Amino acid sequence: MPKVVTRFAPSPTGFLHIGGARTALYNWLFARHHGGDFLLRIEDTDLKRSTDEAIDAILAGMRWLGLDWDGTAISQASRANRHQEVALAMLKNGKAYRCYASAEELTEAREAARTEGRNFRGDLWRDRDASEAPEGAPYAVRIKMPREGEVTIRDAVQGDVTVKNSELDDMIILRSDGTPTYMLAVVVDDHDMGVTHIIRGDDHLNNAFRQYQIYEAMEWDVPVFAHIPLIHGPDGKKLSKRHGALGVEAYEEMGFLPEAMRNYLLRLGWSHGDDEIISTEDAIKWFNLESVGCGPARFDFDKLDNLNGHYIREADADRLLSIVKSELENNLSRTLEETEVARLSRALPSLAERAKRLPELTESASLFCNTRPLDVTDNAAKQLTGDALPVLEKVANELEAVTEWSAPVIKAAIMSFAEAEGLKLGKVMQPIRAAVTGGKQSGDLVETLEILGQGETIGRLRDRVAA
Ligand code: GLU
User: What local confidence, expressed as pLDDT, does residue 374 receive?
Assistant: First the structure.
């Protein structure tokens, strides 16, 4: 097999949405699996709708997902001369012709075809000679579609798909202003870039038959097509914003890790036995087109959350620390002190056990920062009234007397205090938890106190007494 070359060809009219990200991932995995090239082409021919912001967002989204492309990204618009050249070559070899029909004539012909129940083929000038056109009249270039026979595309995902050539219209390949149409530009670029496999959404399947004819007309090798089913919402309907049809940057903001996203998008339409958790390394080893499913994939936030939780637990401690630290510094608008960072680094492994998204982790870690007096939730405030206050005052004094600040010693001190006061342990622990965490979710309380340190713990207890 010749070197595999795949490409991702987004139109920069918006962010890198989730479907596009999956298409990019599959192309990337397929190329990496075969030791081939993964190319990026920005289809910026629609100058009115293409924006630099969208290009930046697409590149940023790909970088965030870790989908590195080979060579530099190619701008389709910059290749307009080459597209024209191919259209002219097709005119020369008789596979295309000049169409001088005006917009009105075309509309009329389309209407007539509709009333007569025929397919409209746009072929008004197919059999006419250019000499019949007025001097200097503008013309578009149309492909001369074969009228007989049929084409079968052996799609690597959809299987064999056949279309009768008589169903295809003589589509325009070059507009009268000299600009190429999407159909022509895609084929010329894919050919020139040496693309061997075109993996894209199945909304492009119909285009494949028309594009096929351009390859034939130019006697170029036709690449392998693989049209992957679109992503639907969990209810089986077209993916909407509510379902998760958002830009990749929105997922970054929501606190998903790129490796979780890769794993999730991979499984959204591709499977390897019953495996749910698949590292990128294994994905590269295993990825194939045969195992891309034929039915529409359903987007499911719960699954994504679960995978993200897994990757948060697996993440390197320094990496998590630096993510959480910078988020906290952002939220608090200050640099964290060394003691706070040290606390975070001790607390994070157990906090990471429970977090599904990064903001949740940051939120639970925030209690290890110096933010006295703490904001207290309504629920926690209920634990901090009446009898609880003298208990807190006394337990603060007991804890101040502890000489070795370690979890077992802290625990022993609290237990002996409760016993001496004739209180159930819960009656002591609950207000301590409320005062020290402000009602935030936290793991083992004694461990939390140990990590917070003696001074901070006692300070927080006394803040409540004084409040
Ligand atoms: N630019 C097209 C799109 O964003 C993709 C073209 C292709 O993959 O052939 O839908």
Answer: 92
C-beta 19 within 6 A of ligand 1: no
Q: Average pLDDT for residues 420-437, to the nearest whole number?
A: 96
Q: What's the average model confidence in pLDDT over 193-221?
A: 97
Give Cβ neighbours of residue 294 (< 8 Å, ≥ 6 apart).
157, 158, 159, 229
Give domain status of residue 373, yes or no.
no
Q: What is the DSSP string of 152-188?
A: EEEETTTEEEEEEGGG----EEE-TTSPBPHHHHHHH
Gap between the Cα atoms of 194 and 3, Å rounded: 9
Name the DSSP class of 134: P
Kindly state whether residues 25 and 115 are assigned to the same domain: no
pTM score: 0.92
Q: How confident is the model at residue 443 (pLDDT cuts 50, 70, 90)?
A: confident
Same domain, 193 and 112: yes
pLDDT band with cut points at 50, 70 and 90 for residue 159: very high
Best residue among 5, 8, 15, 43 to mutate for probing ligand 1, ranked by most atoms within 8 Å of CB = 43
Tell me if residue 164 is catalytic.
Answer: no
The last residue of a domain, from among 201, 228, 255:
228
Q: Is 90 exceeded by the pLDDT of residue 239? A: no
Encoded amino acid at 233, one letter = G
- Ligand 1 centroid, distance to 266 Cα (angstroms): 19
Q: Based on the domain organization, do 338 and 406 belong to the same domain?
A: no
Q: What separation in Å is there between the alpha carbon of 32 and the centre of ligand 1?
A: 21
Q: What is the CATH number of the domain that holds 291?
A: 3.40.50.620
With a 6 A CB cut-off, is 183 part of the ligand 1 pocket?
no
Burial of 236 (0-12, 13-18, 19+ CB in 10 A): exposed
Question: Looking at the structure, do residues 327 and 390 belong to the same domain, yes or no?
Answer: no
Q: Please give the residue range of the domain that contains residue 144.
A: 79-228
* pLDDT over 80 at 161, yes or no: yes
Residue 426 belongs to some domain of the structure: yes
- What is the percentage of the chain residues whose pLDDT exceeds 90? 89
Residue 30: inside a domain, yes or no?
yes
Question: What's the total number of domains in the chain?
Answer: 4
Which pLDDT tens digit goes with each residue over 396-423? 999 999 999 999 999 999 999 999 999 9
Token readout for 376 is: 């207290």
* pLDDT at position 341: 98
- What is the pLDDT averaged over residues 261-268? 97
- Cβ-proximal residues to 140 (8 Å cutoff; 6+ apart), any chain: 98, 99, 172, 174, 175, 176
Counting from 1 in the atom list of ligand 1, the atom nearest the Cα of 207 is: 9
